[in-house]
Design a protein that fits this description.
The protein is of the alpha/beta class and about 230 residues long. Helix content is about 35%, strand content about 25%. It has helices at about 40-50, 70-75, 95-100, 105-115, 130-140, 160-175, 190-195, 215-225; strands at about 1-10, 15-25, 30-35, 55-60, 65, 80, 150, 180-185, 195-200, 205-210.
Length: about 230
């Protein structure tokens, strides 16, 4: 569903990614892990279209989108949940959802995915907890009906019970078979439980790649210790 082929990218003359290749299969979930400064955010900016490549190719569902703007990639099924539990704080939870659609059936569907938000529809988003805002951010993106969902550090700064809920949501969404997920995450256990395969990015290069699951934990930790 998403493929980065031999991508080199950076800022000015400084290369942050060098020859990086990553694949997210249709209906599959892939984790991208690495320390701060490894190049994860740069890779996401390339995938979303916020940063042009120096060389290489980006494909969505087999189509070359390397030169397409972010809105054109969204139109092709990309949904992006950036880091930081973003919301419109002065608007209610419901109003945040209605920015995407006023179709009540669609809103009810995402509220079924995040039932804790039902009791918070009239509350201003700025008064929600970090975990609640993260659920709202994901729910708002799901309203766009993406075929490819990119999540940037969804567990950062949120309580453990919400982490467990988000893990369950990722698992249930990918189980449907019609949604692909690229999960950028430093919480290794969460990432491996939520996805079928992984990549480790260090100093702008892929240093490890394999199948996910608990059995991969030692391999990932060893790769990230280098």
């Amino acid at each position: 569903m998403l493929e980065l082929r031999d991508v080199t990218a950076g800022y000015g003359r400084t290369k942050v990614l060098e020859g990086v290749s990553v694949e997210v299969p249709r209906g599959g979930a892939v984790a991208l892990m690495g320390h701060n400064g490894a190049g994860k955010t740069t890779l996401l900016r390339v995938a979303v279209g916020l940063l042009p490549v120096m060389s290489g190719t980006v494909l969505i569902d087999g189509e070359d989108v390397t030169r397409l703007r972010p809105n054109k990639r969204v139109a092709r099924g990309l949904g992006y949940v950036p880091q930081g539990q973003l919301s419109f704080p002065q608007m209610t939870t419901l109003e945040n959802l209605q920015l995407v659609t006023t179709d009540r059936t669609s809103i009810d569907e995402v509220l079924d995915t995040f039932p804790a938000l039902r009791d918070l529809l009239a509350r201003r988003a700025g008064l929600l907890s970090g975990g609640q805002r993260q659920q709202l951010s994901i729910a708002r993106t799901l309203l766009t009906k993406p075929r490819l969902l990119i999540l940037d550090e969804p567990t950062e700064g949120i309580q453990p019970n919400v982490v467990a809920e988000i893990e369950s949501v990722i698992t249930s969404l990918t189980a449907r078979g019609d949604l692909s997920v690229l999960l950028v995450e430093q919480h290794v256990g969460f990432a491996l439980r939520s996805t079928g395969s992984y990549y480790v990015l260090e100093s702008g290069r892929i240093t490890s790649h394999g199948e996910g699951g608990p059995g991969a934990l030692d391999d990932v930790r060893a790769a990230m210790a280098v």
